């Protein structure tokens, strides 16, 4: 352990112990499948709103967005604005209908009018891909955080995080995940408010003085106050906007949250509270990001021999906490960031294990007649498997910016699950074949084009230039998914296609099969 971070380590153990106590409490109250997947449907709108906000106010958001602003200035704020814009889309298009039709997963909703078996197979595959990509961002942030605090090897840090997340999901289910999210959302918002206050205090509460210091310390000078990279590549800017706006509507762990509330009104209220908390948090990124340039970039204590932040760019927010609040604030923000990571990976792991145990095992393999005890066992096994996968992915992608990786995940989500869900809810000519074909084309093309882009082709595989420069590729893959759904559906013939088209009218009062 690093003796320099004794207070941070103490906070770390306190928060981990707190979350373990929550898991123990939740495990005693998780008595049925409905409790495990949806917290018994007893979560209030305010509680669920905080939990949803907690999913977005992740380590990827705090650490990654601060790092982006630190390195790119104004361009990094595009991500912060983008992540908050998805919530209105969710409330207007999805929230009410999801709560009326769904049970545990988005596949429950779509299968109310389309053939269950092929839809659930596609939904499970898409959900597992999205969850795995999103887990990368959290695992990278967690590994770098533990490495910085404890001075242990990054690989061992990844194993520690993986073990804890498996423990939370396997024993606490949605009840534990929800309450860990609520508590950490409140703590993270409190911590960022305090850090922002102290940053402004250091400059006499003058935002202009802070920006002037940031301009002085950054290599690009005044250029950091205006858009740079986005203007040079407008297609990538538009693609990023599509991904972060509509990707929210396709994230499995977010969609699951609408099944934890008692009714559709509470679902809409959840989005209101989530949007309020998220907008406040992302607004603070403006202060924290430019404050980090002003106070960290000029302080050799936080820089290595090459002038880069110690621990990597993703650790800039923690260095800023140390600069304005000393070891106490560093300890608090570090512990909250870690609690944030654990909460988010728990939600992701629960969504992934649900996709396998509920959509594949219970509904496809067992045709709806699965033993609840066996289904719970399968869910725990899948949570373990996802934990192992998350550790491996966290090690492989440890050098990438975590906020940037989130945008790639959103690109896959808006190209696969979102088109299928939206068309299933609103277009009466959608067929099972069209949904599976369109969703699969969107999923595969998003993954392949992401692999051919800068994130993988250059940063991971080491090639000199990417095969495709549009990054993320949502501007190509999302329309491709919609067009494929449309073409296959309108040319679909036969009895199954006719049944699919006839089922939309009865969806308003349907329940998942």
UniProtKB/TrEMBL annotation:
GO terms for biological process: plasma membrane acetate transport. Its main location: membrane. Keywords: Cell membrane, Membrane, Symport, Transmembrane, Transmembrane helix, Transport. It holds the Pfam family SSF. Coiled coil: none annotated. NCBIfam families: sss. This is Sodium/solute symporter. Gene3D superfamilies: Sodium/glucose cotransporter (1.20.1730.10). The chain crosses the membrane at residues 6-28, 49-70, 76-95, 121-142, 154-174, 186-215, 235-259, 271-297, 328-357, 378-397, 403-427, 434-460, 472-491.
């Amino acid at each position: 352990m690093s003796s320099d971070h004794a207070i941070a380590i103490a906070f770390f153990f306190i928060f981990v112990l707190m979350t373990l106590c929550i898991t123990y409490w939740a495990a005693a109250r998780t008595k049925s499948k409905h409790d495990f997947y949806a917290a018994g449907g007893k979560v209030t709108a305010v509680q669920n709103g905080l939990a949803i906000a907690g999913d977005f106010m992740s380590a990827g958001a705090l650490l990654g967005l601060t790092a982006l602003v630190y390195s790119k200035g104004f361009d990094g704020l595009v991500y912060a604005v983008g992540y908050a814009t998805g919530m209105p889309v969710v409330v207007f298009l999805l929230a009410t209908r999801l709560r009326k039709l769904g049970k545990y997963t988005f596949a429950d909703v779509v299968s109310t009018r389309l053939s269950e078996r092929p839809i659930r197979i596609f939904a499970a595959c898409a959900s597992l891909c999205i969850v795995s990509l999103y887990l990368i961002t959290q695992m990278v942030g967690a590994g770098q955080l533990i490495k910085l605090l404890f001075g242990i090897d990054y690989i061992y840090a990844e194993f520690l995080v993986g073990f804890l997340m498996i423990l939370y999901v396997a024993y606490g289910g949605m009840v534990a995940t929800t309450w860990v999210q609520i508590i950490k959302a409140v703590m993270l918002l409190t911590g960022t408010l305090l850090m922002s206050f102290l940053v402004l205090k250091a400059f006499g509460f003058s935002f202009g003085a802070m920006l002037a210091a940031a301009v002085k310390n950054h290599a690009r000078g005044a250029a950091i106050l205006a858009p740079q990279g986005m203007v040079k590549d407008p297609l990538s800017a538009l693609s990023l906007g599509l991904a972060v706006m509509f990707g929210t509507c396709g994230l499995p762990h977010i969609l699951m949250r609408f099944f934890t509330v008692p009714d559709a009104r509470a679902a809409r209220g959840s989005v209101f509270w989530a949007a309020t908390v998220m907008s406040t948090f992302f607004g603070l990124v403006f202060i924290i990001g430019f404050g980090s340039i002003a106070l960290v970039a000029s302080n050799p204590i936080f820089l290595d021999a090459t002038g880069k932040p110690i621990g990597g760019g993703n650790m800039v927010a923690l260095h800023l906490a140390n600069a304005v609040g000393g070891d106490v604030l560093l300890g608090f923000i570090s512990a909250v960031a870690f609690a944030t990571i654990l909460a988010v990976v728990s939600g992701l792991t629960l969504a992934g294990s649900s996709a396998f145990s509920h959509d594949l095992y219970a509904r496809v393999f067992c045709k709806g007649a699965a033993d609840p005890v066996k289904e719970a066992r399968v869910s725990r096994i899948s949570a373990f498997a996802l934990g192992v996968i998350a550790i491996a992915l966290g090690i492989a992608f440890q050098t990438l910016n975590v906020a940037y990786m989130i945008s790639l995940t959103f690109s896959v989500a808006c190209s696969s699950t979102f088109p299928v869900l939206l068309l299933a809810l609103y277009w009466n000519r959608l067929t099972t074949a069209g949904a599976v074909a369109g969703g699969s084309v969107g999923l595969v093309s998003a993954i392949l084009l992401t692999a051919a882009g800068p994130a993988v082709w250059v940063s991971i595989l080491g090639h000199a230039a990417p095969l495709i420069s549009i990054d993320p590729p949502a501007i190509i893959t999302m329309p491709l998914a919609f067009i494929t759904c449309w073409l296959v559906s309108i040319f679909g013939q036969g009895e199954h296609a006719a049944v699919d088209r006839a089922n939309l009218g009865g969806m308003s009062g349907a329940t998942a099969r």
